[in-house]
Amino acid sequence: MDIIKALEHELYINCKSNKKNTFSLFKLIEKNISPSICYELLNCRLAITKKIDPTTEKLNIAGCIKSPAYKQSLTHEVPDWPKEYHLLEKIIHRDFLNIAQFWCEFEIYKIKSKYPENEDNKHKKLPLLEEAYHSKIVEDIQSSQELYYTLHHTQPMSLSDAVLLMNLSTLIADKGWYEMLESLTISSTGRHFILLEKTSEPICTIVGSARIQLWNERHNWLSFSPFFTNEGWQPCIPDSIKNSPIHAKIFKTSCIPKLDSIHSFEKYFDETILKKNHICEVIRLSVSGTVQECIFYLFLTQKHLIRELDAMGFYMAYVIIEQPWLMNFYQELELDCYFSISYKNLNDTERNTYKGFWIIPNLKTELNNTSFKNYKKIVIQNKKKSNYRNL
Question: Count of CB atoms within 10 A of residue 120's CB?
Answer without folding.
Answer: 6
